[in-house]
């Protein structure tokens, strides 16, 4: 699965779970935790990609005096990819935050329930 498809799949899963939380039969805690874990793993992968892109942009910018035309085009491409990764990461975080809060609340409820 390529990165774009993986991101879309995770976003879809998060949106579906968030919508289901207000439904008649909310998802089980285990399903929420699994999706939350996958979401955070994907967020970490996006962060790693961002760092890699930023490093490459820095390297290219430092050498702009050499073959500036080809480096400039690569800089444009990298900047576009960085902006896309930033947008993906922002969207992912916006979906993960309410899910994390719900999981925390369910864990607290489970811990407070009599055995």
Helix content: over 70%
Tell me the structural class: mainly alpha
Identify the overall geometry: elongated
Mean residue pLDDT: 91
The low-pLDDT segments are none
How many alpha or pi helices? 3
Radius of gyration: 19 Å
Multimeric organization: single chain
User: Main beta sheet: strand number and arrangement?
Assistant: none
Strand content: under 5%
Distance between the termini: 43 Å
Count of extended strands: 0
Pattern of helices and strands: HHH
How many domains make up the 3D coordinates? 1
What does this structure look like?
This protein has three helices and no strands. It is mostly helical. The protein is elongated and about 70 Å long. The N and C termini lie far apart (43 Å). The model has no long low-confidence stretch (mean pLDDT 91).
Task: Summarize the model shown.
With 115 residues, the protein is mostly helical. The protein has helices at residues 3-21, 29-62, 68-112.
